[in-house]
Amino acid sequence: MPAADKNAKLADVAGAAEGAQAEGGILAFTREQELSAYRAMLLIRRFEEKAGQMYGMGLVGGFCHLYIGQEAVVVGARMSAKSTDQFITGYRDHGHMLACGMEPRRVMAELTGRRGGYSKGKGGSMHMFSREKNFYGGHGIVGAPAPLGVGLAFADLYRGDGSVSLTFFGDGAANQGQVYESFNMAELWKLPIVFIVENNRYAMGTSVERSSAQSNFSMRGTAFNIPGRQIDGMDVRAVAAAAREALDWCRAGKGPFLIEAQTYRYRGHSMSDPAKYRSKEEVQRVREEHDPIEQVRARLLAGGIGEDELKQIDAAVRRIVSEAADFATNDPEPDPSELWTDVVL
Amino acid sequence: MAELTLVEAVNRALAHELEHDPAVLLLGEDIGVNGGVFRATLGLQQRFGSARVIDTPLAEAAIAGVAVGMAAMGLKPVMEIQFSGFIYPAMDQLINHASRLRNRTRGRLTCPMVLRAPNGAGIHAPEHHSESPEAMLAHTPGLRVVIPSSPARAYGLLLAAIRDPDPVVFLEPTRLYRLFKQEVIDDGEPLPLDTCFVSREGRDVTLVAWGGMLHEALAAAESLASEGVDCEVVDVATLKPLDAETILRSVEKTGRCVIVQEAARTAGFGAEIAAIIAERGLYFLQAPVRRVTGYDVVMPLARLEGQYLPSVARIADAVRKTMEAE
């Protein structure tokens, strides 16, 4: 599938931030690095918009949690990571898969529950994995992937291959007890793990202010001696800078590192969200003033890149997404015999 | 060849796997320096190092979660939970991750981990130190559940559990840890994980039991022999996946069945066995299937323990009633 190969190349930005100079809390990206970030974030944005449309058309089974607005977090982290590092996250996971270079058409086909999906149409939106891309899910239970990330990091240390586990969770998950059991073990054993709190301000419909006694999540590791950074998660360069610092810390054998990326989700928690917990104006303001993709676009234009070139990227991304949607619509459904596979009976 | 207790046999099996497979790791509370609350891991940290025999914080949920992460990376963690009643905080990880990793990843990843825990009564303590949660674990798709009844079976079944690519909950009957010794050949030979064992052959009635209760069933069989009742005793050993064929074959031969379980009665694993006999062996039966079980109460403290646990007398009584029915 030539189209699929192109997708993979377009999306996986592992190592793309290499060589960028750190200054004032960001990495000063070259034009090529800005373009990498732009392409990767745009692919996630367009993919998620299409996923939302397809959900509306009744094509997506199960849940669907969109990442729109948060694209800079995973893209920035991936740009400073190596492809051999592991990524693991919760249920808002499509962006992580695409940033890790998983094929958009197979991710979309999983949303629609088709044979060609990453989990052969049985896992759905929240449950996809790729050993080749070192993506370890995609898990539905809030906070519970944190100890799994610690286990991945333990294996990294045990094998001594210098890999790091990047373990993502949200502000809601940060109030789960298992997260702190994980912090303790990670620091106790000096494991190579970067905990990344994607603080999008709302745990479903409950704001950070209404749920969190300590709302500075970068300090949540303080009691365990885990260093933390609170950063602007809407600026991909700031995320890349913090991720580089954290990964260097881990690879030097100093143990875990915590990043709080302050971000925002434009869409509802899931596709059925009454949105009574925030105003339309609030959402509109973030979109207009802090959009992660528009920020890069503005810098590219200011740096002299032509509208034409950006339009070409946009067209290429739309082609990929549209091809993914076609595949996900027409691929056959799983055979009923699949009910009995991959389980100990 | 050595005469070993059950807990020593567990120790030998763990040592054997640590020695022969660098992917095998042990983790749990107090398993290293202290050698485990029942000394199942005694001496293993000294022998294999603290990188492989790991003392963890008191955090059952994260111990299980970390083990799942290790297993996803191809390591073979064997975690010890100090008592089976302490498994409950880890149920989230067992049910939501460990048991489902193979299915959720469509076979890309498996979860070769073992959760070991002492199970059932044995130290005269109430509640979580003495309970038998095997039915809720066996009810979980994707988990194997194994309960050995002797040193030799503990050794062979634990080897098989560690080598199995899927998660195994290995419940060790606390009461049997040091009850008796048996010859165990430390040769690395596993026992099958999908087989019931016929521990005593007989013609008149089938007693089905597992773990600690196997010995009450055998004692009842012994006492009934003097009354002229010839009992066959089946050791279930692996509850999930269950070897129904061995049980049905025995019931076909004897025509009668009494199931003995230490756990509370309602929705216990004995009910599953009774249902299978009803579905597939009804016409073998000359009498209704009977169950001798714990009661639907919280496991009590020492003075009432004898009231709670199925006794040789209760089992023998149930067998006599079964023999009377025609």
Automatic annotation (TrEMBL), chain A:
SUPFAM superfamilies with a match to the protein in the record: Thiamin diphosphate-binding fold (THDP-binding)
Top-rank lineage group of the source organism: Bacteria
Top EC class of this enzyme: oxidoreductase
GO molecular function: pyruvate dehydrogenase (acetyl-transferring) activity
Cofactor requirements of the protein: thiamine diphosphate
Keywords (A to Z) from UniProt: Oxidoreductase, Pyruvate, Thiamine pyrophosphate
UniProt keyword Oxidoreductase, yes or no: yes
Annotated Dehydrogenase E1 component domain residues: 40-336
GO biological process: pyruvate decarboxylation to acetyl-CoA
Catalytic activity, reaction form: N(6)-[(R)-lipoyl]-L-lysyl-[protein] + pyruvate + H(+) = N(6)-[(R)-S(8)-acetyldihydrolipoyl]-L-lysyl-[protein] + CO2
One Pfam family of this chain: E1_dh
EC numbers, comma separated: 1.2.4.1
NCBIfam families: PDH_E1_alph_y (TIGR03182)
Function: The pyruvate dehydrogenase complex catalyzes the overall conversion of pyruvate to acetyl-CoA and CO(2). It contains multiple copies of three enzymatic components: pyruvate dehydrogenase (E1), dihydrolipoamide acetyltransferase (E2) and lipoamide dehydrogenase (E3).
Complex formation: Heterodimer of an alpha and a beta chain.
UniProt name for this protein: Pyruvate dehydrogenase E1 component subunit alpha
Species the sequence originates in: Methylosinus sporium
TrEMBL record, chain B:
Cofactor(s) in the UniProt record: thiamine diphosphate
Residue ranges of domain Transketolase-like pyrimidine-binding in the record: 4-179
One of the Pfam families matching this protein, by short name: Transketolase_C
GO molecular function, one term: oxidoreductase activity
Keyword Amino-acid biosynthesis: no
InterPro entries: THDP-binding, Transketo_C/PFOR_II, Transketolase-like_Pyr-bd, Transketolase_C
Keyword terms of this UniProt record: Oxidoreductase, Thiamine pyrophosphate
Keyword Transit peptide: no
Domain of life from the UniProt record: Bacteria
PANTHER family to which the protein is assigned, alphabetical: PYRUVATE DEHYDROGENASE E1 COMPONENT BETA SUBUNIT (PTHR43257), PYRUVATE DEHYDROGENASE E1 COMPONENT SUBUNIT BETA (PTHR43257:SF2)
Protein known as: Alpha-ketoacid dehydrogenase subunit beta
